[in-house]
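Example S7 (structure tokens).
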């Protein structure tokens, strides 16, 4: 099993460690974080900061993963890893469902019970969190995040770095703009402008 290092040592990193353990695809050998939550998470040591990336690459670690929940930071750190010569695999929990026609970008993450439906595309560093459903033809932009328990009907587009808050429902064909935030529990029945912050049933600007 090839080694992999994670950028990030917070709660989200714990989840990512268990996704790789469950999938068996990579052995998580260390975490890099300037302000780690603890010296080790689930038995994986914090090695230091991203300054160690060149040394790890020289030691033969080819793969890395950004285990950070914040969308803009995750995107920036993805660029750091690519510039340092790492490959960013997708991470898929074995209890997720990925349709044969769906595509997953580099460094994207599908948690347990997530569904990525027919002809969907999840961009690089996108997250489909626990139990979230992205139905057919969904497009998830780079570093976007569909939070736990969301339901995106068919043909929904989520822009780069947008967050669809936990438990939201999104009507078919809706576009959620770049950097938008949809509050927890929203029912999104109209397009959401880039950078907007909406919530409620039906969702309105907050
Ligand atoms: C929408 C959200 C971003 C707003 O956060 P915030 O800026 O800290 O807002 P506050 O908690 O200060 O609330 C501001 C107002 O918006 C309302 N509000 C907050 N979240 C709301 C939501 N999800 N739906 C409807 N109204 C909401 C509050 O009641 C409050 O109203 P008031 O001023 O009348 O009292 C946040 O509440 C949210 O829902 N985030 C989603 C988080 C999530 O799912 N993350 C995934 C992690 S895996």
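Recovered sequence:
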């Amino acid at each position: 099993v090839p080694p992999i290092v994670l950028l990030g040592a917070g709660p989200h990193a714990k989840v990512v460690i268990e996704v790789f353990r469950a999938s068996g695809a990579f052995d998580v050998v260390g975490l890099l974080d300037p302000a780690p939550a603890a010296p080790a998470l689930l038995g994986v040591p914090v090695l230091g900061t991203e300054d160690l990336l060149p040394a790890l690459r020289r030691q033969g670690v080819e793969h890395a993963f950004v285990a950070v929940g914040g969308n803009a930071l995750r995107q920036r750190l993805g660029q750091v890893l690519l510039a340092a010569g790492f490959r960013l695999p997708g991470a898929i929990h074995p209890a997720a469902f990925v349709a044969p026609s769906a595509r997953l970008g580099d460094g994207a993450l599908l948690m347990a019970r997530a569904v990525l439906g027919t002809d969907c595309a999840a961009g690089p560093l996108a997250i489909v969190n626990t139990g979230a459903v992205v139905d057919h033809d969904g497009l998830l932009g780079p570093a976007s995040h569909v939070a736990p328990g969301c339901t995106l009907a068919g043909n929904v587009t989520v822009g780069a770095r947008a967050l669809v808050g936990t438990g939201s429902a999104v009507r078919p064909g809706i576009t959620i703009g770049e950097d938008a935030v949809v509050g927890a529990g929203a029912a999104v029945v109209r397009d959401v402008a880039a950078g907007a912050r909406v919530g409620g049933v039906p969702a309105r600007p907050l």
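Notes on this example. The first strand starts at residue 3 and ends at 7.
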